[in-house]
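User: Beta-ketoacyl-ACP reductase, Geothrix rubra:
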Amino acid sequence: MSLDLSHQRILVTGGSRGIGAATVRLLTGLGAKVAFTYLSAEQAALDLQADLQAQGRAVLAIRADQRSRADAQVAVAAVEAAWGGLDAFVGNAGIWAATPAELEDEGVLLDILETNVTGLFRWNAEVIPALRRAGGGSIVLLSSTAGQRGEARHGAYAASKGAVISLVKSLAPELGPDRIRVNAVAPGWVDTDMSAAALRADAEQRKRIEAAFPLGHIPGAEDLAGPVAFLLSPWAAAITGEVLNVNGGTVLCG
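Assistant: Predicted structure for Beta-ketoacyl-ACP reductase:
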């Protein structure tokens, strides 16, 4: 039995690049109608939309800021207007930046928390009523190994991703009676634009990082898209409140 998402209408935040773009490509390839948001990477978003539309896939690019509840309202309304409802949400947009203990720049701290935590609350507040209107659905939020074990000099990012895990475990029992499943995917290092400075600019550092992977390689964005699709699918119909670790074996936690 093949994985078929042709009856799903899905909203993905941060879908123009990296894990988000790979997820949009896979979900539309599995038949889903997918809207995705972007903020600064307009050309990448428009190129992705044009490429997928040329292949006959149902896709919609929406400029939106994950920090903004008003933008969330607009995005959800756009999906419902285009396809008659919303069945799933992938909260992928996020910021990774250093916040050493000395906290030299509180602006970075606030940007991370506002985007990775508060923003998700705002988007969920708009998404959840839409899922209820559709009779149920699924939410997948992107966490990180940093939220499970911490990350030196990146305390705000680690705290934000730990908050995502706690949010998932809070929403799952709250929304279960509405037939809404809530899960997280927790990657570690992923070879994308976000990690390019650490993984692509310094060959020796990359070797050190790769040495920590029992599988011997750093996952790419496509390696994360499959687990997201699985959690959205009927194959995961009995899974909620869980964290699916996709980290190449670098963090072995339940």
